[in-house]
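Section: Multi-chain targets

For targets with more than one molecule, the full set of components is provided together so that the structure can be written out for the assembly as a whole rather than chain by chain. Components appear in the order listed by the source. The example entry contains four components.
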Amino acid sequence: MKQEKKKIFQEYAAARGLKSTRQRDIILDSFLSTDRHLSIEELYLQLREKHPGIGYATVYRTLKLFAESGIAREIHFGDGQTRYEHQAEGEHHDHLVCTRCGAIVEFENEAIEKLQDEIAAGYGFLIKNHKLELYGLCAKCRK
Amino acid sequence: MKQEKKKIFQEYAAARGLKSTRQRDIILDSFLSTDRHLSIEELYLQLREKHPGIGYATVYRTLKLFAESGIAREIHFGDGQTRYEHQAEGEHHDHLVCTRCGAIVEFENEAIEKLQDEIAAGYGFLIKNHKLELYGLCAKCRK
DNA sequence: GGGTATATTGAAAGTCACTTTCAACTAGCG
DNA sequence: CGCTAGTTGAAAGTGACTTTCAATATACCC
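Its structure, encoded as tokens over all components, is:
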């Protein structure tokens, strides 16, 4: 899985004439090794611990490349930061976000997707993608 | 409807010890007179035409007050701008957004809301609110 | 391997969309 | 009216990216 995404990115890079660099490899490994929904800043800080030389701009640019290549996806939860999550071909999921502790749970629901398509069709829309986020308290924070 | 929201805001202002000012009245009227999903900037520019003296900061602060009072709601469509839409007590709707022309259609769907609650319950979450946005091409842009 | 044309990098400067500050104004009350 | 606390507008400040640019690294070609 991890190797597969690595390969997808490398192929994308090759096709675009991009070079393989030490920094990109480090960031790619780091990104693929965590399955949290990291913001650029979080990934940057995490990277700095092992690799002090890497700059914020590089992390930012590289994450963007990941998104373009299809192995990552940008997400916004309204906290003002851009986060990146792993993304696989044709896969999609939505989020449950705990507004107290920030916990994020992913879920998929075909029935909802189907209803969405029906609604869109009713208005003549052709849906390209959607965003569904449920905000509230997770089991732990409800206590 | 418009008068009702005006009243709600005035009561909210009174309860908070806020003063009634010329600027706030103008912004309130302007906001209530349009039913588009205006960004702060759009409302500001629209206002400036009739009332050149009003500053951006005032529009920004006033819109925030509207949201606090419950007559408006902030929305984010990922274009980097904060928009405000009218909001009525206990009412909720979601959006269809055309990614080409920016058209926005509002819709409500109880079946989806119900499914959302079920999903949340399954993860032990207590949902406070949610956001559902469908992005694609509107009937006109599909041609 | 050395020489080159390109792509990358990191630091710093620049953007954008708010947010806050502050001195000069009002409202509203007595 | 005279005060006191809330408001305003211009400008400075923030936060989170984005872009610029001179210095480096890579990937090729010989």
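Residues 19-22, 39-41, 56-57, 60-61, 80-82 of chain B lie near DNA strand C (CB under 10 Å from a C1').
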